[in-house]
Structure formats: C-alpha cells, structure tokens
Specification:
Radius of gyration of chain B: 35 Å
Helix content of chain A: 40-55%
Distance between the termini of chain B: 92 Å
Strand order of the largest sheet of chain B: 2-1-3-4-5
Strand order of the largest sheet of chain A: 1-2-3-4
Order of helices and strands of chain A: EEHEHEHH
CATH superfamily of the largest domain in chain B: PPM-type phosphatase domain
CATH class of the largest domain in chain B: Alpha Beta
Strand content of chain B: 15-25%
Largest sheet of chain A: 4 strands, mixed
Largest interface: A-B, 23 and 26 residues
Number of domains of chain A: 1
Radius of gyration of chain A: 12 Å
CATH superfamily of chain A: STAS domain
CATH topology of the largest domain in chain B: Phosphatase 2c, domain 1
Number of strands of chain A: 4
Oligomer: heterodimer
Shape of chain B: elongated
Strand content of chain A: 25-35%
Number of domains of chain B: 3
CATH architecture of the largest domain in chain B: 4-Layer Sandwich
CATH topology of chain A: Transcription Regulator spoIIAA
Number of helices of chain B: 19
CATH class of chain A: Alpha Beta
Helix content of chain B: 25-40%
Largest sheet of chain B: 5 strands, parallel
Number of helices of chain A: 4
Structural class of chain B: alpha+beta
Number of strands of chain B: 20
C-alpha cells in the first residue's frame, strides 16, 4: 500500500491509496494517521479507486481513522471503492458509517 | 554514574542485562606455564571474575571440561601432551562443546598461524604478551554473546511453545469430532467442518449445537486481524456466547445481545464478523442473521448456487447495532456452506485472488466433481493446489449437507441400465443406485469417484496429469465443455449396468476410453502414494469388492446388502 496526501487551501484533504490495504499494511496505515493528526483538517476523503483488495484488518484501520476524525473534529469519508473493496464495505455496512 | 574498577557490577560499554551472569561465569585457563596461569587468573579476578579453574596442559583441560563444563576457555597453543589445536578440534567434534567459546592466546603470530587457529575451531585470538584490558574485554564480549544467544533462544522457544499451546487452546473451543457426529445423528444430515489456524494466531471460530423442535444452530465467526489480540478475543466471544445460551433460538436476538455485551470490551479497530443460522432439519426452514460475514452459499440438488444475505455491522463496532432475521430454506439434498474470507482473499501465485464471484464459480465446479458430502474436502484439496504455501489467515469451512431424498429404484427393479454423459446426470444415477444400498452415503461417494473418472478420463480423454494442471489453474470446467463439443468426444457416454438380489447390489461401469494400467492402483500397497490414484483408493473403500476389466475402461463393484 502506498498513499499520497493532498491538502487543499481550505484544509480539506484527499488521501489517494495505491495497492492492497491488508493486515501487513498496519504500520504504514498508522504512519498515515500520524501524518493526518498533525494537520489542521476540516475534512478528509480516502480515495480507494486504485485499491483492489481490503481485508478485515484493513476495514479495522478505517474504523480507527474514523475514530480519530471524530475526536479531532474533522469529517472522514471514503470514495471510489469498487469490486471487492466496495462489496466488503457494503457487506459490513461500513459504507454507511464512512459516507461522505 | 557507573562505577568502574575491580569487582564493580558494571563495566562501561558492556551489556548490563547479562552483567551478573557474565561475572558468575566459570572460566577455564589452560597454560603450561604457571606464571602465565597466575597472570591471566589475576587479570580476570581484577575484572570481577571469581569462578576460575586452571589446567596445565591440553589433556588436563579436556578432563576438566568433561567433569564440569566451563562457560569459556582461555587456551594456550603450544603445550606438552595435547596441543591447543588438538583441544580445539576435540571440543568442536562433540555436540555439547560445539559452541563453547574458546579464546586462544599465543606468542607467535604469523598470518598462517591465525588461519590454523580459526580452522581448528577457536572463537577468537589474543596475542602474547597479554594485554590485560584487551583480554578482559574479549572474555566479556564472548561471554555476553553466549548468554545473550542463550537467553534469546530460550525466549524464542518459550514463545513458540506458548504460541503452540495458545493455538491448541483455541482449537479446543471448536466442536470436536464426537460433537459433530452426535449432531449429525441428531439431524440426519452430514456436517463437513475444516479449520486450519494460520502460522500466526488467528481469530476464527465456528460452532454448532442442537436446539429443541428438530433444529440445529450453526455459526461462523472471524475476528479481524490476527495475532495474540485476535486470539484472546475469540475466548472472550466464546465465553460471552455461553452467557446468552437461552437466546440461541433467535439468530437476530443472539447477535444483538452478543454485540451489546462485546462492544465495550473490544479495542478500537477490532471487530468480529459473524453468521448464525438456525435450521429446522425436518421442515427445511432456515432462519439466519448476519454481521458482515462472507456470504454463505446454498447449493441446490442441481448444483445451483444462491448466496445468503449476511450484510450487517460486525460485532464490536457500534453498541446500538441491530440485527434482523432473514428467512430461507434448505431442502433435502441441499447444502449450506459457510467459510472464512481467506478462501476468497488469499492470493494465488499470479497475485490475483478469487473474490466472491470467483469463489462461487470454484464451488460450483467442485460440486460437479464428486458426491455432495465430500464437497468441502475436495474443494479445500483443490484450493491448496491453487494457493500453495502458508495462508495469511485462519481458514474455516463448514457445510451442512441435508440428506437427499434418494429417488429410490422401484423395489421390483432387479436389473437395469443407465447411460449418461454429464456429471450432473451421473450424480442422479449415483444417488438412485445408492438408495438401493444399505449405506447410501458411502455408495454414492464411491460411485461418483468412478463416474467422474469414466466421464473425464474415459469419455473425454483428460489424463491424470492434465487434470491436475487444470485443477491448479481452475480451468477444468471450461476444458470439459470444450472437449464435449469436439466431434471425437461428442458421442461418448458412460454405461452403467446394475443387478441386485437380496444379498448384493452389483454395478458395472463402462466407458469408451483407452483405460489405464490399473494393476498398480488396485494393489493395496501401491494405491495410496500415487496422488492420482487417490480417487480409486477412496472408491475401493466404499464397496465390498471392486475389480477392473478389459483395458481398465470397465470396473465392477459389489455392495453386500446386510440384514
């Protein structure tokens, strides 16, 4: 998994992911959350268009991000999920929780 | 500030964690010159060592080591009787001293000699005249290495033993074979259940139990992530389930209560996906509720697939989550198949993964390859061929096969013939003939092995090696359809003749193929180690007699009717 953070002038951000988000990406994902925590964000969108695969640990990491957003007072949403990723979000109803 | 000097507890630059062990170490000083022994001894004493023994030559050194193993040897090279080189070689040839640190000290110091010293097994080298601080530093370093490696490997083997025990304890939460068999007897169906923990600890759990009014309950559960945290949580979930035993009749209530109880205890980012169903095995009524588990599959008698709606918030995320009951049916001859996500998500050698759609197709293809009651076993065999190596997560696969309503032969049918081309038709023939036996499941399993062989090998000319490759790549079905359309195979069929009397059911299966060298496979001692002979060995075990005829394209089996 790789990611790129784009922050706009109005303090909205977009994180573009590339590659699988699975258990083994846990360290990289925590680094991302750290990177986000030092920014003064209004909202952040996780762009999953280039992600083919997310496992249950990956979904857990989204939940941690969501918690961080709620605590930090910013909005988190996901976009662009397709195929396996979209079905996983739907199956676990996390798509409702992470709606824009 | 750290103290320095003789007898202090700590030397700067040394590893504090093993300082005590280092200081208590037993050091053997070997030198033929009394003055040298005294000098080295006093250097070590000043450095804080008190457990020092001495030997005046190589032979005495070896005798002392035999008696009481030192932690390190300071060894002179040129000594009477047995030289230092010889001592090194002797110690390295014995398993108990193969890694004993040996610090060699010698006056002559040519490059050639150094090579010889290390080649004979010395750990390190100090030159004479002895530089005392250097000797002390090297002694400490080698002792530290020794103790650190020991404590690391002790730690590692302890952790490994504990992980193994944890895996076994986790395994013990699952229904054992006895429980499964008694439930099979209770509900009249067949339960196939497989569980394999991943190398790391995982968080899969499944279970089944009898309920009143002709019902059984079945759940599968997967705690996100793996490792010790996930594994410990399976115990929490298991214990919590026991608390809500009286609510097992109602899947939605059961999940709602479990979630409410578990949510506060689950750490952030951890959750459990779950599916729980209650099946009435008399009426076929199925009530279930889902919490985001992979969608279970129902296979009809004709092999049609439908997926159950297990959408739901996983347990442990939102305290107020609610779950609803959904209704379906599991009719006679149908199967309910639940599985963990590793089956859809594990990467194949090309990096791709099956996904749900691919997995459903895979299940359908496996379904056609043999009797229904061996579906999961065959599916996993093929899965491991496609996804070799260790899996990234726990694997759970559980199926309930409701016993088919065998369309029995009419009681007065004493003999007859069936002709078929497809595996679907073969299944129907197998279940009708099986119904005339006293062990329908075993006979159906055995006949399907023979029928599938007659179709694929006999009618379509697919070789055993070829089949293995097709199964690995998942191209078996496409190949069967392709060959069926070719003129040389289009009209081939399997012919099955049966005769029955009060004592036995005799069945002959004949195909138009070239047969095979069957002798090697039907001999008792040869069949098992040949991978492609497994089907034959399995079939043989299902009948009282099995014989091949002709070029191997005809097989006769006898099932003795008892009582």
């Amino acid at each position: 998994m790789e990611y790129r953070i784009d922050v706009n002038e109005d303090n909205t951000a977009r994180v573009v992911f590339n590659g699988d988000i699975t258990f083994s990406e846990n360290v990289a994902f925590r680094q991302l959350l750290k990177d986000l925590s030092v920014k003064d964000l209004q909202s952040c969108v996780f762009d999953l268009s280039n992600v083919d695969m997310v496992d249950s640990a990956g979904l857990g990491m989204f939940l941690i991000a969501k918690e961080q957003a709620d605590t930090g007072g910013w909005k988190l949403s996901v976009t662009g999920a397709q195929g396996h990723v979209a079905s996983m979000l739907k199956l676990t109803k996390l798509s409702d929780l992470l709606q824009g | 500030m750290a103290e320095t000097g003789s007898g202090s507890g700590f030397i700067p630059g040394r590893v504090a964690e093993v300082a005590e062990e280092v200081r208590a170490a037993n050091i053997l000083v070997v030198d033929d010159m009394p003055l040298m022994r005294t000098m080295i001894g006093s250097c070590l004493t000043k450095g804080g060592f008190s457990n020092i023994s001495y030997a005046a030559d190589g032979a005495e050194a070896l005798a002392i080591i035999d008696q009481s193993m030192p932690d390190l040897v300071v060894l002179d090279l040129n000594m009477p009787k047995v030289s230092g080189y010889e001592v090194c070689r002797t110690l390295r040839s014995k398993p108990e001293t193969v890694d004993l640190p040996i610090l060699v000290q010698s006056a002559s110091e040519t490059a050639q000699e150094r090579v010889q010293v290390f080649a004979s097994g010395a750990t390190d080298f100090v030159s004479k005249p002895i530089n005392q601080p250097e000797l002390l530093a090297r002694v400490c370093m080698h002792l530290e290495n020794k103790f650190l490696i020991h404590s690391l490997s002790d730690f590692q083997s302890r952790i490994q033993a504990e992980l193994k025990m944890a895996r076994e304890m986790q395994h013990s939460l699952l229904p054992d074979q006895k429980a499964v068999m008694s439930l099979e007897e209770f509900c009249g169906g067949t339960i196939e259940a497989f569980y394999k923990a991943s190398f790391e600890l995982g968080g899969d759990l499944w279970g089944c139990w009898p309920l009143g009014d002709d019902r059984v309950g079945l759940f599968v559960l997967d705690i996100a992530g793996h490792g010790v945290g996930a594994a410990l949580n399976t115990f929490r979930v298991h214990a919590t389930m026991a608390r809500f035993e009286i609510f097992r009749d109602d899947p939605a209530d059961f999940l709602t209560l479990l979630n409410t109880a578990l949510q506060p205890a689950f750490p952030l980012g951890q959750f459990a996906t779950m599916f729980y169903a209650v099946l009435n095995f008399k009426s076929g009524e199925l009530i279930y509720a889902g919490a985001g588990a992979p969608r279970p599959i129902i296979l009809s008698t004709d092999g049609d697939v439908r997926l159950l709606d297990s959408v739901g918030t996983p347990l442990g995320i939102i305290k107020s989550a609610e779950y609803e009951n959904k209704y379906d049916r599991l009719d006679e001859g149908e199967s309910l198949f639940c599985y963990s996500d590793v089956l859809t998500e594990a990467p194949e050698p090309d990096g791709k993964f099956l996904g749900e759609e691919g997995f459903v197709r895979f299940v359908s293809e496996c379904e056609l390859e043999g009797a229904r009651v061996t579906l999961v076993e065959r599916l996993l065999d093929q899965f491991y061929m496609r996804v070799p190596g260790a899996l990234p997560d726990d694997l759970t696969a559980v199926a309930i096969h409701r016993a088919p309503d065998f369309a029995a032969l009419s009681p007065d049918a004493r003999e007859g013939r069936f002709i078929f081309q497809s595996r679907r038709e073969a299944k129907k023939v197998a279940s009708r003939l099986a119904a005339a036996s006293t062990e329908p499941i075993g006979v159906a399993v055995g006949l399907m092995e023979l029928f599938v062989n007659a179709i694929e090998h006999g009618c379509l000319g697919i070789g055993h090696d070829e089949k293995g490759k097709l199964l690995e790549t998942g191209g078996m079905n496409a190949e069967i359809l392709r060959r069926r359309a070719l003129p040389e195979y289009a009209d081939n069929y399997v012919c099955v003749d049966f005769k029955r009397d009060d004592a036995a059911l005799r069945i002959a299966v004949k195909d138009p193929g070239r047969g095979f060298k069957y002798q090697a496979f039907v001999d008792d001692d040869a069949g098992h180690d040949k991978k492609h002979g497994r089907g034959i060995t399995m079939a043989k075990g299902c009948f009282d007699e099995m014989t091949y005829h002709g070029c191997g394209n005809e097989v006769h089996v006898v099932h003795k009717i008892n009582g």
